[in-house]
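Whether sequence alone determines local backbone shape is best considered at the level of individual chains. When preparing material for the folding task, we compiled for one chain both its residues and its backbone structure tokens. The sequence in question and its structure tokens are set out directly beneath this paragraph.
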Amino acid sequence: MDRVKKRWELYNSGCSDQEIAAGSGYLLSTIRAWRCRVGLKSNRAGQQQIERMKHYKQGMNDLEIATALGCKYATISYWRRANKLKKNKGLARSLPEYVNKRPEKERLLIRQYASALIEHAEAYEKKYDSSPTMKDIASHMDAYRDLFGTTMKGVE
């Protein structure tokens, strides 16, 4: 496939300028100039929208989304309000009631585990382009149990 055709294919599939440059063999500056010359918008904004909405639908609050995406809290807060989305309570606050009644040290450990499990699942999806299986999740839980034990050592 020639480079021009590849460039269009990558753009139409939602790739960022960097991804188009890497996939088509052009310099990044060439891709940006081409996109501007033909009047195309950057796909980066669309990709960010998808990522933000994915995390929002999982129940993450503004701070959790900002942390996951490596951006500022204010950026996510503004984005949510601009899209007329209600505030989420966040993953830690949406845990079952019996968890919220536990002592603070236990709640902290549970929140850390939940965050680690979500990060693991997202990393797995990026690497293998599919969701983790129950076996993968069980393996992660075993590794976490080995690390912290059942007596909450390391939390004191």
Remarks:
- Residues 151-156 have pLDDT under 50 and may be disordered.
